[in-house]
Amino acid sequence: MKTVLITGAGGGIGSATAKKFAEQGYFPVLHYHDSLETEKLAESLNGMAVRADLSEISEIESMMQKVLEQAGHVDVLVNNAGISISGLLTDISPEIRKKLFSVNVLGAIECTRLLLPQMIHRKSGCILNISSMWGQVGASCEVDYSASKSALIGFTKALAQEVGLSGIRVNCIAPGVIQTRMLNCYDSGTLNALAEETPLGRLGTPEDIAESAYFLCSEQAGFITGQILGVNGGFVI
Description:
Layout: E1 3-6, H1 12-23, E2 27-32, H2 37-44, E3 48-51, H3 57-71, E4 76-79, H4 94-122, E5 125-130, H5 133-137, H6 143-163, E6 168-175, H7 188-197, H8 206-216, E7 228-231
Parallel strand pairs: 1-2, 1-4, 2-3, 4-5, 5-6, 6-7
Helix pairs in contact: 1-8, 3-4, 4-6
């Protein structure tokens, strides 16, 4: 049985992706930090849940050791975990900025580093990074968030070249405005305006991302690597 490890599986995109892979016969390993509902989700999917603060390398190392001991191997890694901050660049404290980059960028890199050896040994594996359309074009008042998501895009392109000969594919999804808890800070008027600004006339759903995530990690995408797939309804073209 193939195994998928999804970080940040307690969120809307993470949980939808977990369900999609489980439906396709994968053993889902669901990472969370503070969303205890993830344990219930893992149980319902006949998978396992693991907890770690992705801003702490020691916790990532302990998590990966547990995953490999219990699951044996990981075929697909979905680096989905991320945090968001908004505000003027001059108003964001160094402490908050450090936390954001530690989770969004270094957490993904360390998770990948620790799983790559067993993928290289088996000459097989897929790594999928979840970025953002703001990582492609940037957004005012989300400078740090945009920079962290842009870093994931560069990470994707470089690593795809580094591990391609080892049979490992690396791709990235850049979601648009998706109906998750991250939108809870917006009122209905703002959400309606965002939907109208999207050429397809609606907001995205976690399932939109999950379907694309599964495709990029499937055999149907066997000749696709180093690519950034915008799933944004045409918001950014």
